[in-house]
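Researcher: Last one for today. Full complex below.
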Amino acid sequence: MSNQQPNRTSELLDQELVQKVQQGDKSAFDHLVRKYQSKIISLVNRYVKDPNEAQDVAQEAFIKAYRALGNFRGDSAFYTWLYRIAINTAKNYLVSRARRYSESEVDVTEAEQVYNAPQLKGMDTPDQDLQNDEIVKAISSAMEKLPEEMRNAIMLREFEGMSYEEIAQAMECPVGTVRSRIFRAREAIDKKLKPLLDKR
Amino acid sequence: MPDKMNQKISQFIDDELPYEEALQLLTEVKQQPELDAKMRRYEMASTILRSHQPVAISSDFVDKVSQVLEQEVVYFLPNVRQRPKYISSALAVAAGVAGVAILVANNVPKLEKTTPAPYVVSANNPSQTEFKKSQEPVKMAVRKSGSIDPRFYSYLEAHRGNLYTLDAGVQSYASLAGYEQ
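Model: Here's the assembly. Have a good evening.
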């Protein structure tokens, strides 16, 4: 059980969108980008620490995915396939960047070593670090102020990756109540988060 | 902004929204920047809760990808969904049965009706009754002429005298027509 893996409903949506793209509907690909942008940028961010570069690499990964979509036959879930493309794109990016720095030949398999190189980590500026800390603190504070049932519901969802059905069983309440509690928890967090992001 | 839409966004990022509604939601998010921003903030909060690491997503990320793809040539073929094997097998069996049925329907009746005729007509002293019988295959050929290649049909017409009226003292239709008799 993991909230990183899309469930069956999500896969059905992906199948429909992929099919539309394969039939020439480019706008359907926008939906796939919107759906997975956060996950893919987060993933790339593990390799490429600079937020702007991470977004560029994620963008490149989506473009590569679009170009390869004609060959995608649905043997694996779309997200799994996209995930692999994003990882490879990030690794290749690090290798090519290392080449630019060192002007020496680096094998693709050395990407992990390149990733571990200290000079490529912690690319955020001090201002960005400060803003990030501020955001993390604001969200932690909002979580602490949530009523217990809301906090429990969102924690089971975000930390344990449980489905609404599973949370409903754990909390002995209807699924609709879980849905509502998680939504209201998110709204409470969003009230703290929005002003900070608007300042950026 | 109605809470209903925000709640759907919350369900969507948890993969708990039915896919028909999810597709509709994505269309609305694409059209309404406020909903798009809300979705990105919900996702950011979700990421921070799990990893304590904020991930910034620029508001024009989707647009940037879309702009690049605008230049791309659409070269995809229509997606052909692979049928389950049992359907393919059933179709193959059905096609085989249909093929056999067509062959039987076309060949067996022809053999039964056409093969006896020459023997009957080529008798040295054909009676009136026998001659009438001999006309049957010719009539059938005329009735079915639409399905026969015209050149082949002409050939049969030109030579039917040899086949059907041998020693009967009757001129072939082709001979009569050819000399406008």
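The mean pLDDT of chain A is 85. The radius of gyration of chain A is 20 Å.
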